[in-house]
Design a protein that fits this description.
- The protein has helices spanning 21-72, 148-155, 168-174, 216-220, 277-288; strands at 6-8, 14-16, 76-81, 84-89, 94-95, 115-119, 125-126, 196-199, 205-207, 232-236, 239-247, 253-259.
- It has five helices and twelve strands.
- A five-stranded antiparallel β-sheet has the order 5-4-3-8-9, with helices on one face.
- By secondary structure, it is of the alpha+beta class.
- It has one domain.
- The longest helix is centred in the first third of the chain and has 52 residues, at 21-72.
Length: 290
């Protein structure tokens, strides 16, 4: 045991020069108890911050696509990959979001992601499919949400902004921007086999073939704790908060955070929202007439 030494002061009182072992053990016990109480709270706080960050990323992508469609007077699509959505110029056949596309820092694109999303307009298709990570896996003919790099290698076109077959003078002019600076060649892409939504030049929105809008009435339903599904839902592993996103045909996009009845226990699980998607659409059409 550590004995504290008594020190005589000028006033005749004793002061301690240290702590006893019992006092140290009490302090350590308090710290352990506080950590046990605060640990889950801190973890939930960090998960909520990460969810809000991804929610903001999705919102920025949708806003960018609609703004570009209206300003450029041509169709601009939002294409879905595991790492998140991308903005695609349908006329030029190229992505135009390089300033905001950072797949390396997206929690959605990690090898074992703790966050993923479900496409309610595509009957709850999940953004995380572990089969996509298997060596030699080839993307099939059906629609899916693949990792971007794997999809790019299997689907990119050899066409570029300037073809070598053009004459030297014409090629040189096409490689210049309006400011006279050289424009790098850009790879063209085909979106076969991908889920997407497209903003028309008037700002309205249409879904890719085979998909249907989840009625806004389902998104607005606040009974029994909130909506069961939406056009897009972002989920987290072992966490009940989820982000619900509603995409209206008019082009308006809204989002909100709602707690699920139970937390997903497996990566890529969309049973809390995906299995209810088809039923919710039928119910929504019956009520709203859509």
């Amino acid at each position: 045991m550590m004995n504290s030494e008594s020190v005589k002061t000028g006033s005749g009182l004793d002061t301690r020069g240290g702590f006893t072992m019992i006092e140290l053990m009490v302090v350590v016990a308090i710290i352990i108890m506080a950590t046990g109480i605060m640990g889950p709270t801190i973890a939930d706080f960090m998960k909520n911050r990460q969810l809000e960050g991804v929610r903001g990323q999705f919102g920025n992508i949708f806003n960018m696509a609609r703004l570009q469609a209206v300003n450029q007077r041509r169709d601009i699509s939002v294409v879905f990959f595991r790492e998140g959505p991308r903005v695609f110029d349908e006329l030029r056949s190229e992505f135009i979001d390089n300033d905001v596309w950072y797949p390396g820092t997206s929690p959605l694109g990690e090898k074992d992601p703790a966050m993923w999303y479900a496409l309610g307009f595509a009957r709850g298709t999940t953004s995380y499919n572990p089969k996509h990570d298997e060596p030699g896996f080839v993307l099939g003919e059906g629609l899916s949400v693949p990792p971007f790099e794997k999809w790019k290698e299997q689907n990119k076109s050899t066409a570029s902004r300037t073809k070598r077959s053009r004459s030297a003078g014409r090629s040189s002019r096409s490689r210049r921007t309006s400011s006279g600076r050289a424009r790098p060649a850009t790879t063209k892409y085909r979106l076969n086999g991908l889920f997407k939504v497209t903003f028309n030049r008037n700002g309205t929105l249409v879904f890719s073939n085979g998909c249907s809008d989840v009625p806004t009435s389902v998104y607005n339903n606040e009974e029994n704790g909130g909506p069961r599904t939406a056009d897009l839902v972002i989920l987290q592993l072992d966490a009940t908060p989820a982000c619900f996103i509603d995409m209206r045909p008019t082009g308006q996009v809204r989002s909100k955070t709602v707690s699920l009845a139970k937390s997903p226990k497996q990566r890529g699980d969309v049973s809390a929202v995906g299995m209810a998607a088809s039923g919710s659409r039928r119910l929504g059409r019956k009520k709203s007439g859509r």
